[in-house]
Design goal:
Elements: H1 5-24, E1 32-38, H2 43-47, E2 62-69, E3 72-79, E4 81-82, H3 104-111, E5 133-134, H4 141-149, E6 151-153, E7 155-157, H5 164-173, E8 189-192, E9 213-215, E10 238-239, E11 242-243, E12 248-252, E13 270-271, E14 277-278, E15 285-287, H6 297-303, E16 310-313, H7 331-344, H8 360-364, E17 367-373, E18 418-421, E19 429-431, E20 444-446, H9 447-458, H10 508-512, H11 514-518
Helix pairs in contact: 4-7, 5-9
Length: 533
């Protein structure tokens, strides 16, 4: 064989890949991490149809709420009632389909200074509380199957107190802060989505005049100080000098949209002369129906064995779990098919074919899948946030030992579901299972837990560097330099388990060509066609 520069490079690439796989193919270590981000639900809403479906789960069928009836205000226990994934009551039942308020102001009202009884606020005058609901189990059976065959988190919290735009920022970079710590305005957070242009020109290419709302740590409004949708801060996979040395992909149904976190970060999106995003890091953003990709790009790379080390997967509006008229109810099947593609292989794949317990991304290149919901969606949940940091002197916590410490005034949010799938996750595992240990340090997680676990798995530099600035994840009280606990480590043991498939109503090919699957004209879109939260 004649060696050339190209063949030498090829051999080096093969050796590097082999070494990387050898390094990650060990108990509790992963070659790939996939973060699937569904929309707008709480554990009580998704799993409340069966409050005891798994030993130790912390679920409730209702809670106290404030509502008005016949001019009188009542504070009473409200029973959860069934509503489908569109937010609609059962056929023949009176009442409208709803998409509850889940803006930052709605969060404050729902929380009601810790009373957790404000979830009726936008419906209170009607005497009804549709926010107190659960989805019929038949509509979300794949989620129940994933939870029982793998891992379920009792106490996983949205980090921020607000809707989707900033939630996706937290899931990609650990913050929605506009600039790096120590710089001017570094303690302002995006607290609300961009305005009327959120479905058109958003993020770094944005040229309009409607900007996100920014909030200071004392909860005052930043006003005109931060009139921008494009701002610099490090992410899990990039910093000011470029890539952190690990392959990554961001799989999104459409551009531009507020759910595409890389669009709003100047380290990733370099605005081109035509007004679009570009640059070296932008090549990691994989958009539906662009180039080689189908309607659901993640399945293309799984089938062709091009899965990067770290992936974010954003669903289309028709199979996200967001309440709204475009929701087909296929979100659970979409998620279940990703699990099956990873653990069981894929038909027609030459590199990752169907194989019992020996699929490429299960045994040979172990993969961990974190299935998370981006915010609570305005739906009721009975568990108080693990901590709500306020700047007021009467509510000081460890977070405010240093005045205006990072996160105060905007951390943390309500509980959202987290399901964990991996070869090292034992069936029926419930993190924080009741009656003990409950919501303790080891079993309490948030968006930052996923980022911190991923950093440690791939030995990545901490976001914004050591020591205290890494507290952009799993906020102030935890994961400090003196804390040795690896977040989410309780989900992973040293034993490799066989893969258990998830039954779904539609195969993955449905999502690759969703128009032909549903028999309708189809244009990929963001996870929500409604109010954008």
């Amino acid at each position: 064989m004649k060696f050339t520069a190209s063949t030498s490079l090829l051999l080096l690439t093969i050796l590097a890949t082999t070494f990387a796989v050898a390094q990650c193919n060990q108990p509790g270590k992963f070659c790939h991490i996939i973060i699937v981000i569904q929309e707008n639900r709480t554990p009580d809403d998704v799993f409340g149809a069966d409050l005891t479906f798994e030993n130790g789960v912390d679920l409730a069928g209702g809670g106290y709420g404030i509502y008005v009836q016949n001019g009188q205000t009542y504070h009473e226990y409200i029973q959860n009632t069934p509503r489908d994934l569109n937010g609609c009551p059962p056929p023949g039942t009176l009442g409208p389909c709803v998409d509850p308020d889940h803006g930052q102001g709605g969060w404050v009202t729902d929380y009601d200074s810790g009373n957790m009884d404000g979830f009726c606020h936008e419906y209170a005058a009607s005497g009804q509380c549709p926010s107190y609901s659960y989805i019929p189990q038949t509509s979300v059976q794949p989620y129940f199957d994933i939870a029982t065959n793998y891992g379920f988190a009792n106490y996983f919290f949205q980090t921020n107190e607000g809707p989707s735009f900033e939630a996706h920022q937290f899931l990609f970079s650990g913050t929605s802060t506009g600039v790096s710590p120590g710089q001017q305005y570094s303690q302002y957070f995006v607290s609300q989505n961009p305005g009327k242009d959120k479905y058109g020109n958003v993020g770094c290419p944005y040229t309009g005049s409607s900007f996100p709302v920014w909030v200071y740590t004392d909860e005052s409004n930043a006003g005109a100080l931060l009139q921008s949708e494009c701002y610099p801060h490090d992410t899990l996979v990039t910093n000011s000098s470029g890539d952190k040395g690990v392959s990554w992909g961001y799989y999104t149904p459409s551009l531009p949209a507020i759910w595409n976190a890389p669009e709003a970060l100047s380290e990733v999106c370099v605005v081109q002369p035509n007004g679009s995003c570009g640059g070296p890091e932008w090549t990691h953003v994989h958009v539906a129906d662009e180039g080689l990709y189908s309607d659901a790009p993640i399945f293309d790379d799984l089938k062709n064995c091009n899965l990067p080390a770290i992936s974010w997967v954003i669903p289309d509006k028709r199979y996200s779990d967001h309440a709204g008229e475009d929701n087909t109810g296929l979100g659970p099947s979409f998620v279940g098919d990703i699990v099956d593609a990873v653990g069981g292989g894929m038909s027609g794949s030459t590199c990752n074919p169907p194989s019992t317990n020996n699929a490429l991304y299960w045994k040979q290149q172990p993969t961990a899948i974190f299935i998370v919901w981006d915010d609570w969606g305005g739906w009721f949940d009975h568990v108080q946030p693990w901590a709500v940091y306020k700047q007021e002197s009467s509510q000081k916590t460890i977070c405010t030992v240093a005045p205006n410490d990072w996160g105060c005034g905007y951390v943390s949010g309500f509980r959202v579901p987290l399901l964990v799938v991996s070869p090292y996750t034992q069936a029926h595992y419930v993190s924080g299972a009741l009656p003990s240990p409950g919501m303790d340090l080891k079993h309490t997680h948030d968006f930052g837990s996923i980022l911190a676990f991923t950093e440690q798995n791939f030995n990545l530099p901490f976001i914004d560097g050591p020591p205290r600035r890494r507290l952009r994840r799993l906020q102030c009280a935890r994961l400090g330099p003196a804390t040795k606990q690896r977040p989410l480590s309780d989900f992973f043991g040293s034993t490799a388990y066989n893969f258990t498939s998830i039954n779904t109503s539609e195969p993955y090919t449905c999502f690759q060509n969703f128009g032909s699957c549903t028999g309708t004209t189809y244009v990929p879109g963001g996870p929500d066609s409604g109010d954008g939260d």
